[in-house]
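Homework-ish question, so no full write-ups if that breaks the rules, but can someone show me the predicted structure for this set?
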Amino acid sequence: MSFETCFPIWDRLTPGQQDRIRSGLFSRTVPKGTVLHSGSMDCTGLFLVRSGQLRACILSEGGRQITIYRLFERDICLFSASCILRSIQFDVTIQAERDTALWVIPAETYQSVMAESAPLANYTNELMASRFSDVMWLLEQILWRSLDRRLASFLLEEAAIEGTAELKLTHETIANHLGTHREVITRMLRYFQNEGMVKLARGTVTIRNGAALRVLNE
Amino acid sequence: MSFETCFPIWDRLTPGQQDRIRSGLFSRTVPKGTVLHSGSMDCTGLFLVRSGQLRACILSEGGRQITIYRLFERDICLFSASCILRSIQFDVTIQAERDTALWVIPAETYQSVMAESAPLANYTNELMASRFSDVMWLLEQILWRSLDRRLASFLLEEAAIEGTAELKLTHETIANHLGTHREVITRMLRYFQNEGMVKLARGTVTIRNGAALRVLNE
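A: Not a homework solution, just the prediction itself:
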């Protein structure tokens, strides 16, 4: 899998623009758990995920965190290069959730090509609109939906991503993802267990009745 | 004040692109309270505020609402033309908070110029990034900050916008803006009053100690 085939609008760039991106480009491989970018760090560049999985989250001063979106193979991470857009005034932390290989396009390279290329600027618009939609969805979840629905939604999504009903997740981890406290999650999970929807064991949540969770999530 | 002087990157468009925008453009004047755009309505076009004030908010099924940002003179409203970006998948309601005059650029006109103009596409990126930052700020307020800080922040902002310490606001209205319930706001406002920070009367909140509110907001 080459960079050229992964980068969505590659053939709409001029040969000169392609050369500039190619000459700036470098590869990086990081183990699971690596923090690739955080608010206090430099403007790293754009990431294109070759394999693995990243998550973008926001952190509170007290260390609480909430996942705002995830990035999979062929996804592009814009906010690791947030300096390219001076209007972006928020800090996102990017962490590898699996061993991950990625290409990095240096911020200044991307910015200089985008300044002259309508296709690249329009593509960047679409990327940002898509992440914006993720965040609006999250905001609506937090504002309007009750925790039981959010938790059901989270468990079903995790099961779909991991391809298993037996999820290796602590209550603390789930609480961090949903922006709440461990005690709140433990109480809700016990309710789910009492209803036969999940089975709890140390460090594991197993989905026993996905249909019931989906009903909750409707 | 002409459209050409208000539109930020007007002189970076080609004469042909300027002609297309000028010929599609129309003016609109709406009284305070008018809903200019909502999720279920058509893709109206981009608004450029000539005078007055708009607010963008999201609504729950139950009718609760929360303000996500405001638009003043010379601001451009992108999400009233959300169809121009296929990745935008959320509904925003745009309402006039004062009698408002605006220019409307039809969505298809803007889209066709943006497709070929790197300056316009880059400008649109900056607009979206700026709104994205507003929403991230809001999300962080909701997730991490306690209501007293959010309410103090809201009152100070209103006073700055209206240019007066005597705010014509019901508790219901404040609750809608902050995405919570009237009872919660009433309780917090009474706490503020007991602390000498505000004075409450029917339909009015008067700021008596802005410095104390600002301390709360730090």
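Now go work out the reasoning yourself. Hint: The CA atoms of residues 175 and 185 of chain A lie 6 Å apart.
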